[in-house]
């Protein structure tokens, strides 16, 4: 029977491993000791991160940073934003200058395997496109034969553009800039015939121009650009927190939990999934070493995923970007939360 005793011991050990409480991890400990989350964001593009007239950062990425601060501190103000260019963002994260990067950063294999970083959940689906002035008379990208194209240094868009024009044997002249605002200014000044970057960012750039109607974002898409938060490797507890925080924002929309009804849902819902998400039963927060009401606090502060999208990209905003693949999976999109249980 020694084999049975060995099997039983292994089972007990496995069960103990399952129920062992999670530890906070060095990044969460450091954030708590500092009293502030340091979040890397874009240097400025409407919809994701752009200062308003008071200098307050607005956009989906900025709000995701605030929501993470709420999950940790129950205080959306306990976040410090660091605007980073495409060429400096990953270096800043790897060096410890920031705790997390919510910055229109495409998840790719080489970034995941060579930078010492990890990407968490995809929270936005996009694709590479091109924007041109209407007077250029271009309806397809292949017509940009010999065109000068503005690009952003350190992005996947540099390679995507080069690969496409090489594949159709059409020459083009790249003009590379460090920041999006520099490329936008060059485009408007006539230094470039087109601007190549992700379509959502083109929509944000166009919305900030003096005459948005003068510009067309061509309908073709040339890549998959899934955005995810990036973190340093080696801190699994911090990865778990950022990962499941992002899923919780999506799950809230799936369950129909909004800023307006979260309090009532927490008080009256008999749905076990809702009670679990909103912290009526505490196991989700306990597993992450944070307040059991963390997801409830987040939704009350920034809303669910759909509210975030509508606030920064919806039809009432200057960006006015249809949800498309950023719809929930139940509405024909790609946005999907893993089970929070």
Automatic annotation (TrEMBL):
InterPro entries: Bact_solute-bind_prot3, Solute-binding_3/MltF_N
GO biological process, one term: amino acid transport
Alphabetical keyword list: Signal, Transport
Signal peptide residues on this chain, from the entry's feature table: 1-24
Keyword check for Transport: yes
Residues covered by the Solute-binding protein family 3/N-terminal domain: 36-265
Origin: domain of life: Bacteria
Keyword Transport listed: yes
Similarity-based family: Belongs to the bacterial solute-binding protein 3 family.
Protein name: General L-amino acid transport system substrate-binding protein
Organism lineage string: Bacteria, Pseudomonadati, Pseudomonadota, Alphaproteobacteria, Acetobacterales
């Amino acid at each position: 029977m020694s084999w049975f005793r060995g099997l039983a011991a292994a089972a007990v050990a496995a069960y103990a491993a399952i129920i062992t409480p999670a530890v906070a991890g060095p990044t969460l400990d450091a954030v708590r000791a500092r009293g502030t989350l340091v979040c890397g964001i874009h240097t400025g593009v409407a919809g994701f991160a752009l200062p308003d007239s008071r200098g307050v950062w607005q956009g989906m990425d900025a709000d995701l940073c605030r929501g993470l601060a709420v999950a940790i501190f129950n205080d959306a103000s306990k976040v410090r934003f660091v605007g980073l260019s495409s060429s400096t963002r990953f270096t800043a994260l790897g060096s410890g200058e920031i705790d997390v990067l919510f910055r229109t950063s495409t998840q790719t294999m080489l970034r995941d395997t060579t930078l010492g970083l990890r990407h968490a959940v995809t929270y936005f689906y996009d694709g590479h496109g091109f924007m041109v002035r209407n007077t250029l008379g271009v309806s397809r990208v292949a017509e940009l034969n010999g065109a000068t194209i503005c690009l952003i240094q350190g992005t996947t868009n540099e390679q995507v553009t080069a690969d496409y024009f090489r594949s159709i044997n059409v020459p083009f002249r790249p003009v590379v800039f460090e920041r999006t605002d520099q490329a936008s200014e060059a485009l408007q000044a006539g230094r470039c015939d087109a601007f190549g970057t992700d379509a959502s960012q083109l929509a944000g750039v166009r919305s900030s121009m003096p005459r948005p109607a003068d510009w067309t974002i061509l309908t073709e898409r040339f890549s998959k650009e899934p955005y995810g938060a990036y973190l340093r490797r080696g801190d699994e507890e911090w990865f778990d927190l950022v990962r499941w925080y992002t899923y919780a924002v999506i799950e809230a929309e799936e369950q129909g939990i909004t800023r307006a009804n979260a309090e009532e849902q927490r008080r009256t819902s008999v749905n076990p999934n809702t009670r679990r998400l909103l912290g009526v039963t505490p196991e989700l927060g306990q597993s992450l070493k944070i307040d059991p009401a963390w997801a409830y606090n987040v939704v009350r502060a920034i809303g669910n995923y759909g509210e975030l999208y509508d606030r920064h990209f919806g039809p009432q905003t200057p960006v006015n970007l249809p949800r498309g693949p950023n719809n929930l999976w139940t509405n024909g999109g790609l946005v999907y939360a893993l089970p929070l249980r």
